[in-house]
DNA sequence: TGAGCTACCTAAACCCTTTAGGTTTCAGCC
DNA sequence: GGCTGAAACCTAAAGGGTTTAGGTAGCTCA
């Protein structure tokens, strides 16, 4: 019986893929074990429990998202940077719905303190600095940005916007316009 | 053996209360049955399955939220109405975290078509009409509003904002200011 | 009073999680 | 080459949850 040679990282990656294919609820130790051709209990050598597995996926997704944000922002600033950051989120949510859904769940304390979380925060802050807001307002601007982007994508993902015309693409553009306007003329 | 005299509505209400006390994941037919002093299988006479139960809670919550929005908006208009609507959401999310979490999940098709969903939509639309946007822009404004409010409350609820100073109350105020500004000067 | 509907029950199949403790495999070293 | 120890993997089992099928008891009303 050949070994699967699993590692925590391999298990977490498989969980992320499974979530993208069949939804977050499909992340079960049983399903993963079946996929690896291994007994369920064996996975507990690599992952503490199901919660820890989800935390792992969370952190993985955060890192991937940070990469995409960094690449998108590139040398841009101002509105271009804002759009790039938002678009990175939307592309990621569209391409990896399962990973995205995991990101929307409460993060473990360790995840909040992770390097990936820090990178996302730093990139967001760097982008916002391009708008020259008062330093003390940066937190509020960050929260507004995060709320709007995440809120939009969440509603889009769970079907709250329906499939009605006009398409959500236009609404998405309006939302980015609104954010840009707000940041440029922050009281 | 005294009968519990259950009805679908009673079961759904109990599920909602349970969610507020212990979280959405605590909504199990088993737990509810224990609460009623009844066998788990008996609940299937009143509720098709767990998914239908959650749909019931979703619709219940939507109705309660609509009531609060209506009461909050009262005779107000413009910014006052916007704040009342947003505050109704925030109060509800704070007071009934479990019900709120259920609202954030994808809605069943029947729920989308329900009277409660219609009421929330109608109230939102009525509020936005106070800003005199072009009729064709109302959809986009609605989506931006929903995204911002829901996004903010979701991030607040799942701890993404941390407990850091300054408090989220101030950020919340900034977000409402931003929405008001955007709606008043919609391009 | 008794017929019938409904509320509730027992039984059972099936799936998932998690713990405990045993066995196999493999790299590296004498 | 054979031994050894650490991983990697396994079996077994307890404990919950969901759901279906079919049986029984209690209430209502003719």
Brief overview, please?
The structure is a homodimer of 187-residue chains. Chain A has 187 residues and is mostly helical. Helices cover 68% and strands 0% of the residues of chain A.
Characterization of this structure:
Two copies of one chain form a homodimer. In chain A, α3 (50-73) packs parallel to α7 (115-129) and α4 crosses α5. Chain A contains nine helices and no strands. The first copy, chain A, is mainly α. Chain A starts with 7 loop residues before the first helix and ends with a helix. In chain A, 68% of the residues lie in helices and 0% in strands. The longest helix of chain A is centred in the first third of the chain and has 24 residues, at 50-73. The interface between A and B is large, with 39 and 39 residues. The structure holds a DNA duplex (30 and 30 nucleotides).
Spell out the blueprint of helices and strands.
2 copies of one chain form a homodimer.
Chain A: H1 8-22, H2 29-36, H3 50-73, H4 78-95, H5 97-103, H6 109-112, H7 115-129, H8 138-157, H9 168-184
Helix pairs in contact in A: 1-3, 1-5, 3-4, 3-5, 3-7, 4-5, 4-8, 8-9
Chain A binds a DNA duplex (30 and 30 nucleotides) through helix 2.
Please name the defining characteristics of this protein.
homodimer; 187 residues; mainly alpha; 9 helices; elongated; DNA-binding
